[in-house]
Design goal:
The complex is a heterodimer of chains A (314) and B (538). With 314 residues, chain A is an alpha+beta fold. Chain A is 38% helix and 22% strand. In chain B, α3 packs parallel to α5 and α4 runs parallel beside α15. Chain B has helices at residues 2-14, 20-25, 30-59, 69-104, 112-131, 157-185, 198-229, 243-260, 263-277, 284-297, 313-325, 327-341, 350-373, 375-381, 385-415, 421-448, 462-476, 478-492. Classes of the chains: A alpha+beta (314), B mainly alpha (538). Chain B: Keywords: Cell membrane, Copper, Electron transport, Heme, Iron, Membrane, Metal-binding, Respiratory chain, Translocase, Transmembrane, Transmembrane helix, Transport.
Chain lengths: 314, 538
């Protein structure tokens, strides 16, 4: 019974206490990672122990469910392993313990069948609500088509606020990381940096630029084998499968650079196809988009280079 | 010298075939075939362990120091195939061969010649599989799950690996048929189904799982074969096929397979804990029904391995709920083991230590399994080191620990020799320490965002990876220590008594140690007090 009450209470206080707990854990891992405070949220920390809450509602939801389950497991673990430890110290033959001969107890067995069922229902409820919410990809402002290749990504900005953009580019591992990652290259992975950040294997030549505070829908597929598109700070991964188009969405709340990797084994360079998302405030994003379109136009019509076609403004 | 004399004495009564060829190659004796399976599994554990040594050496530091990424992928793929199909499964079949007839009072397995064939397929299957490492293009490198289209990019190794998998499948199915036939037909009078030891029960259920799912795997890999070499498009989108269908079929095999590797472990632990608690197993019938429930549920949870393939919402919810339900019967088992220890009179010989570690560490693997069942969180965990940590807790500290526990538990019955408790305990503490150093930090790596199956990583992951690799190198010594303990026992061990352990109950403890070559040629008379779970009628 005590367990059930605890589980209910923990659920009621999930948001509050888990936030606190999360901060405590994050703080602890930060303390451990000397001098890496700058990196929080964009790169993993050294000695990181726990998931980060990320920068989207989806990521925070994943984090909350993760922490809820973690604490339920910790509580059950303490009870079960505590009982075992007590039994091992108390009921030792060397201490003169004489074995009882009972072999079942219907009441106890019913209790420990029913209580776990109740706990599971308590867990399934928020998970279901979150999942229903996560599955809704309707009404995006921006649609990005992601295509996985061995071993790089193509990003197509299909439409932004209802207008086709024509932006479409490849994104692959940056040159510094690529040189360093060769077998016995003799180069130090710690020396691969962008500013202060050690970005070895987590940097690309051209990042995916997204607006903050806008619902972005992804349609995801692959051209050769199965890949998976994953940026931990956004809170989900989805497989990129040849012949199948999957979808997902995100709404990034803070500007920043968020890094991830391919998460489905896709051949020899599976470990070397990172993902970088640069989230910019809407105005900056639109500026960037216009710049890309202008560059495209200039490329497509070199004769008219002197009087570039006005890019459609979103 | 005295022990040698005793051996010779036993031999006289045993009517063992004398030549090596007759004794081991043409054998139809369940004990000898059990020994063959166990020796084979030990060799495979060493080979698979050596491969994990390559993996952890490369992962000890960021940057590529030792192997090319493609060879790294071959190592992860073949490591898994060798450990699952060559290590864990044959070890359990070996234990079943040795112990099931002894536990139910049968003179041998029901189908002794088929038993011989089941075993002797295995060395050929694994020779074929391991030789792919020396083919041009190397061994399979698409992961043990063989997901197309990637797995089809391999060269001729695809055909060899699939042939090897077919052979292993035939072996497993024949082994399972044999175990079912033995248990259903050859129990001694009075050994009713609900009086059978838990190890026999869990193996009976496991054998049905094997028969149900090995043909599914065979079908899936045959479709891969025809896609690769005969122009079909089962899994090729360009030809109207569906790569995701392979995953559904594979995991319809794969999830029951997971339980094939853990149900016999439950049985072993359910024999050992009552023995050293000197108390009947708590909730015997609940244990049987829980095992059956887990087996049933294993058929309806497969897609929890594929939450990120883009299933419809309804599918994700169904597989999440079904997966969470597994926690209930599994919880019942854990609570029953703890209750068996409760108010017992416990001693902590080596098998008991391994069994207790199994309960704790397997439960930790179960906890992470429950976390993985939650779809919103799984979108983060999936295909990261969190998953790697999870299944190694379940398979190494779960399945493998139970196998080691079983070897120490029944070794004196097999050989007639006690092992050194001091060195057995040393083996236990060494392995338990290093296995946790090896796998626990992998939870942290996964939560921090490190994908699985990568040969190199960002420098932020370096610290925990180094810790994990140190644990791995410690663990590599574990089979060597075990071999030394058992070798020493065989050469210099004190003679074992018939009952071996003070709290031991069950028919296997009524035959002399070592168990004679032929046992129960006359059916024994079964009394309730002989059984580990006591009289289940009240």
């Amino acid at each position: 019974m005590a367990l059930m009450v605890m589980a209910m209470k923990s659920l009621r206080n999930t948001r509050k206490s888990l936030h606190k707990m999360g901060r405590a854990v994050a703080a602890a891992s930060l303390t451990l990672s000397a001098g890496m405070a700058m990196a929080a949220g964009t790169l993993p920390d050294r000695w990181q122990l726990n998931m980060h809450p990320g920068v989207t509602e989806t990521a925070r939801n994943a984090y909350h469910i993760h922490m809820l389950m973690l604490w339920i497991c910790v509580v059950i673990g303490i009870i079960v392993f505590g009982a075992m430890a007590y039994a091992m110290f108390k009921f030792r033959k060397s201490k003169g313990a004489v074995a009882a001969q009972f072999s079942h107890n219907t009441v106890a067995e019913l209790i420990w069948t029913i209580i776990p069922i109740v706990i599971l229902i308590v867990c399934a409820w928020p998970a279901t609500k979150i999942l229903v919410h996560t599955a809704d990809t309707s009404n995006p402002e921006l649609t990005i088509k992601v295509t996985g290749y061995q071993w790089k990504w193509r990003y197509e900005y299909v439409d932004y606020q209802g207008k086709a953009t024509g932006i479409n580019f490849m994104s692959k591992l940056d040159g510094d990381s690529d040189r360093t990652r060769q077998l016995k290259s003799g180069l130090d992975p710690h020396a691969v940096k962008v500013g202060e950040e050690q970005t070895y294997l987590l940097n690309v030549d051209k990042p995916l630029v997204l607006p903050t505070n806008a619902k972005v829908r992804f349609v995801i597929t692959a051209d050769d084998v199965i890949h998976a598109w994953w940026v931990p700070a956004l809170g989900w991964k989805v497989d990129a499968i040849p012949g199948i188009i999957n979808d997902a969405w995100t709404l990034i709340e803070q500007p920043g650079t968020y890094r991830g990797q391919c998460a489905e084994l896709c051949g020899q360079d599976h470990g070397f196809m990172p993902i970088v998302v640069e989230a910019k405030p809407k105005a900056e994003f639109e500026q960037w988009l216009a710049g890309q379109q202008a560059a495209n136009a200039a490329q497509n019509a070199p004769a008219a280079a002197q009087a570039p076609v006005a890019a459609p403004q979103g | 010298m005295a022990t040698h004399a005793a051996d010779a004495h036993h031999d006289d009564h045993d009517h063992k075939p004398q030549g090596f060829w007759d004794r081991w190659v043409f054998t139809t004796n369940h004990k000898d075939i059990g020994t063959l399976y166990l020796v084979f599994a030990f060799i495979m554990f060493c080979i698979g362990g050596a491969m994990s040594g390559v993996i952890r050496a490369e992962l000890a530091q960021p940057g590529l120091q030792f192997v090319q990424p493609y060879f790294f992928n071959q190592m992860t793929t073949v490591h898994a195939l060798v450990m699952i199909f060559g290590g864990v499964m044959p070890a359990f079949v070996g234990l079943a061969n040795w112990m099931v007839p002894l536990m139910i009072g049968a003179p041998d397995m029901a189908l002794p010649r088929m038993n011989n064939w089941s075993f002797w397929i295995m060395p050929f299957a694994f020779t074929v599989l391991l030789l792919t490492l020396f083919l041009p293009g190397g061994a399979p490198a698409g992961g043990w799950t063989l997901y197309p289209p990637l797995s089809l990019q391999g060269g001729s190794s695809v055909a060899f690996a699939i042939f090897a998998i077919h052979m292993m499948g035939i072996s497993s199915i024949m082994g399972a048929i044999n175990i079912i036939a033995t248990i259903l037909n050859m129990r001694a009078p009075g050994m009713d189904l609900l009086r059978m030891p838990l190890f026999v029960w869990t193996w009976l259920i496991t054998a049905f799982l094997l028969i149900a799912v090995m043909p599914v795997l065979a079908g899936a890999v045959t479709m891969l074969l025809t896609d690769k070499f005969f122009g079909t498009s089962f899994f090729n989108a360009a030809g109207g096929g569906d790569p995701v269908m392979f995953q559904h079929i594979f995991w319809f095999f794969g999830h029951p397979e997971v339980y094939i590797m853990i149900l016999p472990a439950f049985g072993i632990v359910s024999e050992i804990i009552p023995t050293f608690s000197r108390k009947p197993l708590f909730g015997y019938q609940a244990m049987v029904y829980a095992t059956a429930s887990i087996a049933f549920l294993s058929f309806i949870v497969w897609a929890h391995h594929m939450f990120t393939v883009g299933m419809p919402l309804g599918g994700e919810l169904f597989f999440m709920y079904a997966t969470m339900m597994i926690a209930v019967p599994t919880g019942v088992k854990v609570f029953n083991w703890v209750s068996t220890m409760w108010k017992g009179s416990m001693t902590f010989e080596t098998p008991m230590l391994w069994a207790i570690a199994f309960v704790i560490l397997f439960t930790i693997g179960g906890f992470s399994g429950l976390m993985l069942a939650m779809v919103p969180a799984d979108f983060q965990y999936h295909d990261t080191y969190f998953v790697v940590a999870h299944f190694h807790y379940v398979l190494v500290t779960g399945a493998l620990f139970s196998i080691i526990a079983a070897v120490y538990f029944w070794w004196p019955k097999w050989t007639g020799k006690m092992y050194s408790e001091k060195w057995g305990k040393f083996h236990f503490w060494w392995s338990t320490f290093f296995v946790n150093v090896l796998f626990f930090p992998q939870h942290f790596l996964g939560l921090a965002g490190m994908p699985r199956r990568i040969p190199d990583y960002n420098v932020a992951f370096a610290d925990w990876n180094l810790v994990s690799s140190i644990g791995a190198f410690g663990m590599l010594a574990s089979p060597i220590i075990m071999f030394a303990v058992l070798w020493h026992s065989k050469k210099h061990g004190a003679p074992a008594t018939t009952q071996v352990w003070e709290g031991a109950h069950g028919l296997e403890w009524t035959v002399p140690s070592p168990a004679p070559h032929h046992t129960f040629t006359e059916p024994p008379v079964i009394r309730a007090s002989m059984l580990a779970h006591g009289d289940v009628t009240h």
